[in-house]
Amino acid sequence: MGQVSRNVAEHAGQLGLLVGRSARAFATLQVSPRSVLQQIYIMGVQSIPIVLITAILAGIVTSQQGGYQFQGAVPLYVLGSIVVASVVLELGPVLTAIILVGRVGARITAELGTMKVSEQIDAFHALGRDPVAMLAAPRILAGVIVVPILVAIANVVGVLAGMVAARLTLGLGFESFLYGARLFWHNWDLFYSLTKAVVFGFSIPVISIHMGLRTSGGAAGVGRTTTASVMFMTLTILILDALFPPLLLQ
Amino acid sequence: MIQYHDVWKAFDAPVLQGVSFGVDEGEMFGIFGPSGTGKSVLLKTTIGLIDLDRGDVTVEGDSVYRGGKASLRRVRYRVGYVFQNAALFDSLDIYENVEMGLPEEELRGMKRLDVTRRVWDALELVNLEPAQVLRKLPSELSGGMRKRAGIARAIVGRPRILLWDEPTTGLDPVNTAAVERLIVRLSQELNVTSIIVTHDIQGGLEMCDRVAMLEGGHLRFIGEPDAFRQSSDPVVRAFVDRAAAMAALDEVEV
Ligand SMILES: Nc1ncnc2c1ncn2[C@@H]1O[C@H](COP(=O)(O)OP(=O)(O)OP(=O)(O)O)[C@@H](O)[C@H]1O
Ligand SMILES: [Mg+2]
Questions:
Q1: DSSP H or E run through B195
Q2: Can you tell me the distance from the alpha carbon of A157 to that of A161, in angstroms, rounded to the nearest whole number?
């Protein structure tokens, strides 16, 4: 038990330090816009296909599931509101984040871990360069910018997919679907969704960079750390997601 | 000019246990020792790449561990470091890698053409054909070429001190000789101070003004090459004999 809390404290301290140093790198203008753009491309643009597929499937499944449960019980147009709420509040942000843990987070940990064990991180220091400014800060900023955009895309596409699926399989017209959606819509929901996205977009790069920079023990170490990092990120996202309703949905 | 003061470092097991010595300006100083005794760790402490448990290192009066950021910055500015496995940046090509060897402040004030010339010259010094390698990624070069590109990156900024972690390991005889000539030339013509970690005992003894042997966390020997050759310390003897046997074996293979 003592060991566990020591570990937690160590991680927390290092994460805090990483965030602080990154903030300072931004404040002192040491972060190159070019590397931020590069990361936006790698993390964002290249993730669009998988995010689209996930969102479409999530929309279809929610719509089918809801349709099945409500058949005959409540007016079918309520399905519009169910799909929108599920996608925007939960599935859009959470599924996108989980996908990005695998696509972006694992990649960052493996990349920085390899740089650590092959002395490239040492080389940055030796050459008087700051690896936090050159490697960490651009990835964190890119995450905070890119994830909300991806989540917004996932929300729109997920809802559209649910709407089309409802029409094709349940015969619910677009107008009725949208009527139901509007009936229970709060603008607050969108804010909630994008706030989650920003938090996840910050957590994924911060944790993956932190884990990457802690790597030791050669190629095997990179493998071990990458697995641990994926677990760490996934759990963090699920826990943060569970904390959102009590904090923001009052 | 470089002083190691009672340097202690343990990872899972103790590695350095109170190492103290000094290296003079313009000196070529060799460090020998069995694999895994902490030669690389010791070299890294010179520019503060490893947190120490105890002790300090000073470079031209600047403390590495107790002088704060500015002091460490000055030290790193003056020192070029040749990493054991080159440690080239994977995602940058050879030009960009070597360019990183120029201090940031200097780079900002330089014309494009001058930067290119400096990079070009550094690559030629290590016997690499610039036109051939400039636009290649490290992964497209052989191990020996990567090693030499790593040396180019370390010398391009014209540091006053060079730390060499096994600069010739993995090089063919022609390039080994070229790198050894380069080390000697930098020292004689530019009065560069060098610390060289090497497994090539013969080469090291010929080049260096003084050598040391690291063993069991301590300096087992420190002194001139002749004294090392004639040492009666059984541990040193065993090490020298083994190295000689290995060298003989190498020659048979060639
Ligand atoms: N970052 C690190 N984390 C944990 N252990 C380390 C680290 N760096 C070095 N060690 C350990 O310290 C010891 C000395 O390592 P070092 O690389 O300095 O040996 P060396 O003398 O350079 O060996 P070689 O001749 O094989 O290069 C080894 O046991 C190594 O496992
Ligand atoms: Mg070594």
A1: strand B193-197
A2: 6
Average pLDDT, chain B: 91
How far is it, in rounded angstroms, from Cα A186 to Cα A202?
25
| Preferred mutation among A30, A122, A127, A214 to probe B, highest tally of B CBs within 10 A | A127
On whether the CB atoms of residues B167 and B147 are closer than 8 A, the answer is yes
Closest CA to A123 of B146, B57, B18: B146
Closest Cα to atom 25, ligand 1: which residue? B35
- DSSP-derived pairing of the beta strands B161-165 and B14-23: unpaired
Q: What are phi and psi of A38, to 5 degrees?
A: -60, -45
State CA B69 to chain mean position distance: 23
- Hey, what domains does chain B have and what are their CATH numbers? 2-253 (3.40.50.300)
Residue linked to tokens 């497994």:
B199
Q: Can you tell me the ipTM of this complex? A: 0.91
Q: How far apart are CA A36 and CA A82, in angstroms?
A: 37
d(C-alpha B42, C-alpha B5), whole Å? 12
pLDDT recorded at residue A54: 96
List, in sequence order, the alpha helices (H) in A133-217.
137-170, 174-183, 187-213
Helices (H), chain B: 39-45, 68-78, 94-99, 104-108, 112-125, 130-133, 143-155, 173-190, 201-207, 225-229, 234-253
| Tokens linked to A19 | 């965030």
Q: Residue B252: what pLDDT?
A: 61
Nearest partner of B62 among B42, B47, B81, judged by Cα? B47
Give percent of chain B above pLDDT 90: 71
Report helix, strand or coil for A214: coil
The binding-site residues of ligand 1, defined as CB within 6 angstroms of any ligand atom, are A 216; B 11, 15, 33, 35-41, 84
Closest listed residue to residue A200, CA positions, set A95, A110, A57, A121: A95
Look-up of token digits 């190691």: B4
- Per-block mean pLDDT, blocks of 10 residues, chain A (250 long): 86 94 92 94 95 96 87 83 93 96 97 96 95 95 97 96 93 91 89 96 97 94 97 96 83
Strand, coil or helix: A43? helix
Return the bridge partners of B223, or none: B211
Could you tell me if B56 and B5 are in contact, meaning their C-beta atoms sit under 8 angstroms apart?
A: yes
Token representation of residue B152: 């180019």
Strand partners, B110: none
Q: How many residues does chain A have?
A: 250
Cβ distance B47 to A125 less than 8 Å, yes or no, reads: yes
Q: Which ligand is nearest to the CA of B37?
A: 1
